[in-house]
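Q: For a teaching handout, I want to show students what a protein-ligand complex looks like in token form. Below are the inputs, and the small molecule is PXG. Please produce the holo structure.
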Amino acid sequence: MAANALDAELDLDAYWMPFSHNRYYKQSAEHRSNRLLARAEGSYYWTTEGNKLYDALSGLWCCGLGHRHPKLVEAVKKQLDVLDYGTAFQMGTPGVFKLAERIAEAAPAGFEHVFFCNSGSEAVDTALKMALAYHRARGEAHRTRFIGREKGYHGVGFGGISVGGMVANRKMFAAGMLQGVDHLPHTHNLKEMAFSRGEPDYGTHLADELERLVALHDASTIAAVIVEPMQGSAGVIVPPKGYLKRLRELCSKHGILLIFDEVITGFGRMGKPFAAQHWDVTPDLITFAKGVNNGLVPMGGVIATKQIYDTFMTGPEHMVEFFHGYTYSGHALAVAAAHAALDVIAEEDIYQRVNSLSRSLEETVHGLKGEANIIDIRNCQLAAAVELAPIEGKPGLRAIRVFEEALKRGVLFRFTGDIIAMGPTFISTPDELSRMTEVLRDSIRAAG
Ligand code: PXG
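A: Here is the structure, written as tokens, with PXG included.
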């Protein structure tokens, strides 16, 4: 192991790391080997040991355009010379109005209004509030129930964990969760769909479970259904063919709003601005974050249809219409970075590149089929996952070992349970994807 003076001089105790095994990380320099990041550029990080890591998850799904893209860095630096923070309530900046216009333009027809916040979790809370308030404003205040999905991830706010379906994220906080939430079944079924390329053939009928929930609760009590079009955090769970269309039909039939949580799928990864366009299914609200400005400055938001926005625009004109917002909604630095990101997406033909790179990703990851301990390989545009057989009695351990072996070999993967997830940068080359896959192969073998 290379000498790591920076590691040696740190007191690690004070920092409570998010979603991390704090004790394991802090226990020994060996456990932290290649896990202190010093620098980044393009598709790579450099660790404090000076080792180079290919970033196989684009940060945490957010840096698709590559780290420290010169145009984005420049835009933020320039903004700092002009305006730092501009009061968000009852005030605005030209930049934030222009950004909303550009985002609405990129969204499917009918989406005309953008509300800004600072993260995916806040975006989800915002969308849920919009749904409740929308129904109330229309005289349907009885529509209070939300339907999420098992294995869904919608961030960590109380709204998000309530509609989410990650058991570990829910069980400790049960006392604080929203009332009246139900869940669709997840669509992850290895028996029926293991090693599917792209969307699995099996599972469309699982959308019909919404009918069952409607029959149970009555449509008049349901405000919205929220799903990730492609489930990222649960380990790249790809929607079955026709599944999202079916959900849309059922929501429309019953007057239920459909929310697409596009925090991961928005702004490039699906080879279109939004997954809604990739699957040609139009929801009523779209949440976004991450890719909107390449993760450079925290930003999230919700895109609403004209119909939803207009419903709020009643009452005396001098009054606030939606009692919701954040100090940093539309922060000038985040806005500057987002404008630059949208420019780069257009200038570098990112959607076309993602579509073409996605084919390379599919080819290369499915080439791992047949390796010992791999029980599934799946892919969805520029996202993929390899699911490993758990070590008996020690779920999750095999993936940690693979993760550590891969770090030694210069690739930073993401693991969740026994799943290795990949969300390469949009600027990666097919060669880099092949190398990433070969490192995964070697790491799985080495991990045993
Ligand atoms: N919705 C979705 C669909 C997400 O993927 C959030 C909301 C929450 O976003 P914030 O910005 O509040 O973290 C997310 C976040 C992973 C991984 O390993 C995924 C996320 C975050 C960190 C890791 O897949 N998604």
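A: Two things your students might notice: The longest helix spans residues 120-137. DSSP finds 17 helices and 15 strands in the chain.
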